[in-house]
Specification:
The relative contact order is 0.15. By secondary structure, this protein is an alpha+beta fold. It has a single domain, classed as Gcn5-related N-acetyltransferase (GNAT) (Aminopeptidase), CATH 3.40.630.30. A hairpin with a 6-residue loop joins strand 2 and strand 3. The radius of gyration is 17 Å and the shape is globular. About 20% of the residues lie in helices and about 30% in strands. The longest helix has 15 residues. The C terminus is likely disordered. It has a four-stranded mixed β-sheet, covered by helices on one side. The protein contains two helices and four strands.
Length: about 110
């Protein structure tokens, strides 16, 4: 799913999410992949409107649960999600990719 916020004829924000099928249940959950609002348009309710629109669309698809990842250092994001009524869940995130070797060490850069 993807939604854009438009103001004064310009895109000022957007949100994207994936609907993920669960293996343990016959249902899906929503993973908010990215949300952004142009700095000059922040703190005007646009981010909240994007999240609410996404949640309504997911609900219409029968999806009741959703999640988003935020870096602990990104206090702005943490405050934003808490203000929306979301609760933090402690997890450990693992990354796979060509730029990392097993054990978490980065590959030398050319």
């Amino acid at each position: 799913m993807a939604f854009a916020a438009v103001a004064e004829g310009h895109v000022v924000g957007g949100i994207t999410a994936f609907l993920l099928p669960l293996t343990r249940l016959e249902q899906r959950e929503m993973f908010v992949y990215d949300i952004a609002v142009r700095v000059e348009w922040q703190r005007k309710g646009i981010g909240r409107a994007l999240v609410n629109t996404l949640r309504q669309a997911a609900s219409a698809e029968g999806i009741a649960e959703g999640f988003v990842l935020a870096d602990n250092e990104d206090t702005h994001a943490l405050d934003f999600y808490r203000a929306l009524g979301a609760s933090a869940t402690p997890v450990t995130s693992f990354s796979f990719g060509n730029s990392r070797k097993p054990g978490g060490h980065r590959s030398p850069q050319p």
